[in-house]
Structures are given as structure tokens and as C-alpha cells.
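Example record

The entry below shows one chain as it appears in the dataset: sequence first, then C-alpha cells.
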Amino acid sequence: MTELNLLIVGVGGQGTVLASRILGEYFTAAGLDVKVSEVHGMSQRGGSVITFVRAGRDVASPLIEAGGADVIISFELLEAQRYAGYLKPGGTMIVNTQQIDPMPVVTGAAVYPDNVRETLAGLGIHAVYVDATAEAVEAGSAKAANVALLGAASRFIGGSAEAWEQAVLACVPARFRELNQKAFALGRARA
């Protein structure tokens, strides 16, 4: 691999920051230069969160231009549609099927679209849909959905399950390691 550009998108509180830390740990352990940039917007109020992760031999900037992401990991369905323009032709989008109503939907000013999958397909996007929340619940807690989704994404990023497991173990507190190992394994197996 010469360079890999990843975008993590979601809603505040979904664990995108931990996912970016695990990715950074994984790429660093592989001997690559890694740059990470997080944009939090109104994340504490349920707003969009976007994280740029770039890995390669010599990465100058953490930012990814529109049409430049090899992989987008979307923690929420509508966020996948919102950031679809960042995916490069031939790229892959890993999408959690969870739906979280944005504030305009909560207030009644808008309606959550029911055609996100069709919209993404119409854009020619290769999307892999994962019920990461169900996988995390099966592992022991819905809070591990971020790691289950990362497990699914790891199939498309590449690398051994063992290397990924080491990155997960390095980034989660000891008391949550078993839960996160299970969630990651379920996500990886079902992608």
C-alpha cells in the first residue's frame, strides 16, 4: 500500500473518535505514517462528526478532498448520504444501518429520508450495509457498535485479524477488551 485515505462519519456519541484511534494504531504498527484530523461540529448535541484518516509512506496532510476517500466508514445511514461525495470512484462505503434523527427531523422541520440506500446505489457507490448495533448487542453491549463496524471495514482495508486485534486491545481499557474483541470479530466475520 502506498497510501490509503479513509473518512469516518457519524453523529456525536457514536464512538468515531475511538475508531479513528484504532485505525491510527493499526497503521502505525504496520510502519506507516498516519495523519488524523477530527471535525466535531455540534457533536455533543447529536450533530455530524467527520474524521479524516490518511496512512502511507509519507503523508503530508490529514485532510481528504472530495472524491479522494478510498473507504468511508459511516456510523449512521443519513451520514453516508451526506458525505458520499468524498468517496473516490471504485471506493467502498461501509454503512451502519442505524438511523439517528437529526435535529430538523426531531423538531418536525424535516423528514428522515427513506431512500438512502437507493440514493447511494443511484450514485454508483459500492456500499456494504452492516447492522453493527445488533452485532455489538450480541457481543455484550450496544456501545461496541463502533468496533463492530470497524471490524466490518477491516475486511476492505486489508490486513490480518491478529494485527487488527492488537490495535483494538491497545486502544480500549482493559475492562472492555473482551467485549470489543467479540464485537470486532462479529463485524469482521459478517462483512
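Notes for this example: The chain has a mean pLDDT of 90. The chain has one domain: 3-190.
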